[in-house]
Amino acid sequence: MGIRSMLSRVRPLINLLILMAIWEVAGQLKLVADGALPAPSAILLRLLTDWSDYPNHIGATLYGAGAGFLIGNLVAVALGTLFALYPVTARLARGMNVAIFALPPIAISPILVLTLNEMAPRIVLAAIGCYFVTMTSTVVGLTQADPRAIDLVRAYGGNKWQALWLVRMRSALPTILSGLRIAAPNAVLGSILAEFGGGGRWGLGVYLLGSLGRAEPDRLWGIGLVATAIAALAYFAFAALGARLLKGTEAVTVPSALPHSGDVTRPLWQRVLILLGSIALPFALWWALLAALRVPAMIAKTPPGLFDYLFVLPSAAAAQVKLLAALAQTLPMTLIGMAAGLALAFLLALTSQVRPGIVRALLPVALVTQTMPLVALTPLLVLMLGRGPAVILWITISVTFFPAFVTMAQGLLLVPRAALDVPRAYGASLFTQLRLVSVPASLPYLFAATRLTAPRALLGVMIAEWLATGTGLGNLLNQSRGYLDYGMIWAVAVVSVLISVFFYQVVVVIERRTLSRLGMAVAD
Amino acid sequence: MSLRLNRRSFLSLTAAGAALPLTSRFAMAATPFAFQASWINDAEFAGYFLAIDKGYYAAEGLDVTYMSGGPDVIPESTLISGKADLTLTTPDTTIKAIVEQGAPFKIIGAQYQKNPIGIVSLASKPINTPQDLVGKTLAVPPVNVVSVEAMLKISGVDRAAVNIVPYAYDPTPLIKGEIDASLDFTTNVPYTIKQAGVEATSFLLYDFGFTIFNDTVVVTEEVLKSKRKEIVAFLRASRKGWDENLADPAVYPPTFAETWFKGTGRTIENEVYFNTAQKPLMAAEGGIFSMSEEAIAKNIEALAAVGIKATRDMFDTTVLAEI
């Protein structure tokens, strides 16, 4: 190993150390928000003194996350297999899959808490966090199996199931394992998010909420860091497992597209029927689940119950006014936040082409803001930014930026060097190279990033509204819980899922049009 | 998550059993009874913890399941879903749910005769009356906005003159001066603020016309019919627990340090402060939980000011009479 490559390996570590040193000084001298940002040393000391509180809380979070991880992934692999074997089921389940991908957890969590008992809401939210990633990687893995190997099984008289077991499953294993890597931290975050709304005595989310009233930022940061560490450990445990089993590495992507399952072309009437079925399925499931759980109608609104609440009952007009007023506050902020998050991610991804060092230094920070429960960071952000649109914008950027950046940077990396050599040979400036080659070539990844960002932007805005500004859908949700306005809780949840799905679909349509005009393929 | 009797309380229960060998109740299977608390485990529920630990519920033939609450737990919801038999609520939301949604609730007692909720500010920039709030920023949990608006209206303060922002039960913005005041339990937050090195001052909404109870004891009409005997037994044992706990507020909180209070991240001194501060707010001539006709009338009157139409029949005092 030469000195240069040694240096490039140590670089990120050095950058991290510099960053920690700056943070320590800023904390010690109370430079940020009049001392509301504690120094790393203070956080660690606090963590040590509080340590006796932690084991039970960590245990409860791990239990919820673990059970959710197990159940979510089992369902995901089973359904993924079904989708891969019978492509028509994948089309039918499209509405459900997009809804699960796009749903904002904070809108769903109160509903889960109302309808389920004890640990179940945490397990379900953790499972939902795992489902999409693992389901997608299962379908991709199974459909990418070597057709020659399948032919071989078939030639020796093997049936569909034997081909599945002997060839497809084995070839899908690496993809599924790389999906589990992303699913693992998702499960931890899902469990914590459900703890916020679920009561109970133990869990890091419960501890965080209980500590919020103590005016001790060092403890909040400590809990946030422990949560982040668990999520990171879960990620690396599955990365290590994958490396051991497969002796190879895969690029990490955050999937946001439904894979093509190779369905045959059908007549129009069949396609329309399938489309209608795929829209109806989530509603049917919602109805069936409530019926199966026997939750009282006052708490649990079925689709017709919600329709009554919004359009038929005497209070419907008032409910509509409230909901529309909240939407008018939330939607513009979501669009602005999404644009800002994407723009920042794009700028940084471009910078990473020119100056990889800056990005490597910033990545740890971005990673922490990604996994750190936002509830812990919000008080600090409020102290620094106040309670206006600025705080909404920053929280939205912090949840949208990271996945968008990773996806875009990857797209830019995959631009063929040879293509860049042409403008270079003509002496084009860096900017011209980017404009003529890099950006157009990585367009599929830009779209993938946008797809990923749309639902997250809504989540970010709602969190900020709930905790800081007291406006929009986030506040309406919180207030309705306090007023026992169950109809409104369901209305906000359903509307926010619909908005997320709508944004997602809009991006998908624009993406398909643009890419097919340019003759490019969709990126995951 | 629920907690059943722990080992410590089991031991004290057996000890109680040994001391009273003639009590035949222990031979009977205890009736399950689920209680949903309205907040995380703190001194607000010390009386119930004591009654569990000392076996007072067991002596009444009850097997109590204690469910902790928290900022995001809606106690009334656990009643409707049938997860709990009895809970503690804020009367304004309960009555609103009865009036607007026909929720089948009955208020059968009140833990706090005077609502401990108040306006907390820093002693260096004190806010002593509702009038002082004019032009100031006040952080209020979204659930309590109605109560604050009621107090402002009763005190003749223009609602538009006060900047109300959401409060996430974090006193940091108040300590740092980002807000001027917050709405919180006066039995608790002033201590927290003092720990952070600043003096706090507070006044109760109750003392400025918003004369309502808090932690009202609520059951559904159905449970009131089917489990009346158990409800009476629960209130009797709870009152015993509270009387004993409040006799000297400094005695019992330390005994819960390793059990009920473990993992809440709060100090025992904090709980003793809380326990001492809540004593005068709970004291009632008819004993803990009582609801005098005069107090009920005051509740109805105060809620009317916010447009919540409470009526006398939402309060049922007959259960208390049976204790």
Task: Describe what is shown at a glance.
The complex is a heterodimer of chains A (524) and B (323). By secondary structure, chain A is mostly helical. Chain A has two domains: 30-296, MetI-like fold (Orthogonal Bundle), CATH 1.10.3720.10; 301-524, MetI-like fold.
What does this protein structure show overall?
The complex is a heterodimer of chains A (524) and B (323). Chain A is 81% helix and 0% strand. Chain A has 524 residues and is an all-alpha fold. Chain A is globular and about 70 Å long. The mean pLDDT of chain A is 83. With 323 residues, chain B is α/β, with parallel strands linked by helices. Chain B folds into two domains: 2-114 and 212-322, D-Maltodextrin-Binding Protein, domain 2 (3-Layer(aba) Sandwich), CATH 3.40.190.10; 117-208, D-Maltodextrin-Binding Protein, domain 2. Helix content of chain B is 38%, strand content 18%. Chain B has helices at residues 7-19, 46-53, 56-59, 75-80, 91-101, 145-154, 172-175, 189-195, 221-226, 228-247, 268-282, 293-305, 318-322; strands spanning 2-3, 31-36, 62-67, 86-89, 105-112, 117-122, 137-140, 163-166, 181-185, 200-204, 214-220. A six-stranded mixed β-sheet of chain B has the order 1-3-2-4-11-5. Chain B has a five-stranded mixed β-sheet with strand order 8-7-9-6-10, with helices on one face. Chain B starts with a strand and ends with a helix. Chains A and B meet through α3, α6, α9, α10 and α16 of A and β1, α4, α5, β8 and α7 of B.
Overview features:
heterodimer; A: 524 residues; mainly alpha; MetI-like fold; 2 domains; 22 helices; 81% helix; B: 323 residues; alpha/beta; D-Maltodextrin-Binding Protein, domain 2; 6-stranded mixed sheet; 5-stranded mixed sheet; 13 helices; 38% helix; 18% strand; globular; disordered N terminus
